[in-house]
Design a protein that fits this description.
Length: 234
């Protein structure tokens, strides 16, 4: 199965082209600015280096979140456009599960973390002794609260693990293990494995239903809720 897979859930955006279990080409860039302008260029370059066109693909996968609200919107909008133009099926996957896959066959539970700002993290806990299996589902939470729920040695990975390393060590001591620097960036190549599995299970997503999984409400949504509550006050 030939797949194009896109991830824009963090400041590191990546695009991968795979054929079956083989990675053909991958483009990864750790730069948050001008994502909308460069994403299509990244897609074109990755397909070109793979020797594929969009018409050669069997499907398209995309990280649905959690992560950057703006990044997720851009990535999913790009995939929708490609799918509408090509007629290719699409599917999605958790960006945290994709990050956890940087530590395959880990002997201990893997805790991927993205910095969600506001002193919170997007996080989860995965068993990665095969494809990542959620032990604690994706959530947004103050890191200290999440750490209180953990028992035993845990491997931390991602930009959130870097940002809150001191707090993690203060809570967990030598039970906290940290992934090497090269493992902290999510990769679309790993997302392709998740996308391929989703297609094999018949989990293609209708284009109209392809939406980000923010987990946390956006600022606009919060403002709307506050206004609605205010309007109900006599």
């Amino acid at each position: 199965m030939k797949l194009l897979t896109i991830d824009t859930s963090t400041s590191t955006s990546s695009v991968a082209v795979t054929s079956g279990e083989r990675l053909i080409s991958e483009f990864l860039l750790d730069r948050e600015k001008t994502l909308a302008a460069r994403l299509l260029r990244s897609v074109d370059a990755t397909l070109h280096e793979a020797g594929f066109s969009v018409t050669d693909l069997d499907g398209i996968g995309v990280a649905l979140g959690p992560g950057s609200f703006t990044g997720l919107r851009i990535g999913i909008a790009t995939v929708k456009g490609l799918a509408l133009a090509s007629g290719k099926p699409v599917t999605g996957f958790s960006s945290l599960a994709m990050l956890a896959m940087n530590l395959p066959w880990a002997a201990y539970p893997v805790c991927p973390m993205f910095d969600a700002k506001k002193r919170e993290v997007y996080t989860a806990l995965y068993d990665c002794r095969d494809l990542p299996r959620p032990v604690v589902a994706d959530c947004v939470v103050p890191p200290g609260d999440f750490l209180e729920s953990l028992e035993g040695t845990t491997i931390f990975v991602g930009e959130g693990a870097i940002a809150f390393r001191e707090l993690i060590v203060a809570h967990m001591g030598d039970k906290a293990l940290f992934a090497p620097p090269s493992a902290h960036q999510p990769r679309a190549a790993n997302g392709a494995v998740l996308a391929r599995g989703a297609f094999a299970r018949g989990e293609a997503i209708p284009i109209a239903a392809l939406v980000p999984r923010y987990i946390r409400a956006s600022e606009a949504e919060l403002a709307k809720r506050k206004k609605e509550i205010y309007n109900t006050i006599p």
